[in-house]
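Researcher: I'd like a candidate sequence for this fold, 477 residues long. If you have to choose between options at a position, lean toward the conservative one.
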């Protein structure tokens, strides 16, 4: 009998409980002790607090690698976690429950929450490492390996078990270095592989862990151990270590090592999509309002379509039509070839021109004036893309979608930019896009986003985009 390890919302539940309990304890010790609450207000606040802590990891992956954090990083995480959690409670109390709170009370609440949470988690991790954590259940285990990897195998198990595994013995197959009875890194060599089932008739252990090539795994021994009710593990012939962009999964009945430029939890994808839907809906409403004012000016300046459409490359090389307010004259695409000599992107991977005469309202020499430069300066031309966010062709935050001719020039490493949905904004757009004329820098920024993408990173870029929108920073100049 073997209990499957916790995954999903239950993973690291003990640490989530610590966060909730510490925040709750400081809520009662600092706030409740100084303020009168009704029972309904107390219950509702507690529910909000617990739900916030439990759901927090869904959109942040906050507890990933919690056991490997150093004390300084753990303190920083406590500041972030208690700051956001405590802030959520304070906002609820101030604006929903409408309880007036003194600045001193708020400051003490946040400071003590960080302190007790940090101390509690550091102490709890020490307990876990000694096998005394809330979910600790020391399992007696026999390790099986070859001469050339047994010591590394033992050390790895010791370093990653956090006291939950007790190595009861070691078996080395066809060893030329060790004999039965020898001590290997403090653990006894208990039996030859063919004698292991007989040995385990007399010695009680829970599990056997084999780190062997598939050709050396003794099938008959595994079947005997299973018949005896002993759980066996076999290491697949690769190690994931602590790389967050590798995972083991089952594909079409095969156990596979899956590698990607970025692997995210399904809950992270869900959170990003929900944010896209909400942002796309709000943006689409704003686009409709803007159209009432922008459309007539565009049409008067250059009679023709109000919106500009163009085939672009989306996630995985899929073609879709981008939608923008038209900021250029109708013949802009036809004139692009004759203006290539003015392209400021030297390698031709993108087209950028300092004073583009194709933009609506430009003077003959590309003088920056008129409606075209105005809507590009404040990125108003981008608003219709919110409709594409709703349909799933784009995301609020992502990479810039290339044109078909740009895509044809891409090498293999350039195509990694399109491993995700293209975005209305992103690292390139918020890093002074008008000043970036090197496509390799664009690639670097996009790859930096892909490797770090997540709910809070997206929020940060969206806020930076809004700031730039009002300051016109990074837009056309």
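Model: Candidate sequence:
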């Amino acid at each position: 009998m073997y209990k499957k390890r916790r995954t999903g919302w239950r993973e690291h539940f003990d640490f989530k409980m610590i966060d909730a309990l510490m925040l709750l304890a400081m809520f009662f010790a600092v706030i409740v002790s100084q303020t009168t609450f009704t029972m309904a207000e107390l219950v509702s606040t507690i529910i909000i607090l617990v739900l916030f802590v439990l759901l927090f990891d869904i959109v942040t992956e906050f507890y990933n690698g919690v056991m490997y954090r150093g004390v300084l990083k753990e303190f920083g995480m406590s500041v972030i976690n208690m700051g956001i959690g405590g802030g959520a409670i304070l906002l609820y109390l101030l604006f929903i429950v409408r309880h007036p709170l003194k600045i001193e009370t708020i400051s003490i609440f946040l400071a003590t929450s960080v302190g007790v949470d940090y101390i509690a988690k550091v102490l709890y991790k020490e307990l876990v490492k000694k096998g005394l954590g809330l979910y600790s259940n020391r399992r007696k285990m026999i390790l099986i390996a070859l001469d050339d990897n047994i010591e590394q195998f033992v050390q790895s198990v010791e370093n990653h078990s956090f006291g939950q595994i007790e190595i009861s013995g070691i078996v080395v197959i066809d060893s030329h270095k060790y004999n039965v009875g020898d001590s290997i890194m403090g653990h006894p060599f208990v039996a030859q592989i063919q004698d292991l089932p007989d040995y385990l008739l007399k010695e009680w252990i829970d599990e056997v862990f084999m780190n062997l090539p598939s050709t050396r795994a003794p099938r008959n021994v595994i079947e005997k151990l299973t018949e005896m009710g002993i759980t066996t593990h076999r290491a697949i012939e690769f190690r994931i270590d602590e790389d967050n962009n590798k995972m083991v999964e089952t594909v079409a009945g095969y156990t596979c090592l899956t590698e990607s430029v970025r692997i995210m939890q399904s809950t992270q994808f869900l959170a990003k999509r929900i944010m896209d839907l909400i942002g796309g809906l709000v943006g689409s409403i704003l686009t409709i309002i803007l159209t009432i004012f922008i459309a007539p000016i565009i049409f008067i300046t250059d009679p023709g379509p109000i919106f500009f459409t163009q085939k672009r490359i989306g996630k995985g090389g899929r073609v879709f039509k981008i939608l923008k307010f038209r900021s250029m004259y109708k013949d802009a695409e036809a004139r692009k070839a004759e203006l290539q000599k003015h392209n400021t992107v030297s390698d031709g991977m993108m087209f950028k021109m300092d004073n583009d005469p194709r933009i609506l309202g430009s003077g003959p020499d590309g003088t920056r004036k008129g409606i075209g430069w105005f809507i590009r300066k404040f990125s108003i031309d981008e608003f219709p893309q919110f409709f594409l966010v709703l349909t799933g062709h784009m995301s609020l935050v992502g990479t810039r979608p290339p044109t078909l001719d740009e895509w044809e020039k891409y090498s293999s490493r350039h195509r990694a930019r399109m491993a995700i949905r293209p975005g209305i904004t992103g690292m390139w757009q918020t890093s002074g896009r008008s000043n970036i004329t090197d496509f390799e820098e664009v690639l670097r920024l996009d790859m930096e986003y892909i490797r770090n993408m997540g709910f809070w990173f997206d929020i940060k870029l969206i806020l930076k985009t809004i700031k730039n929108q009002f300051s016109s920073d990074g837009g056309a100049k």
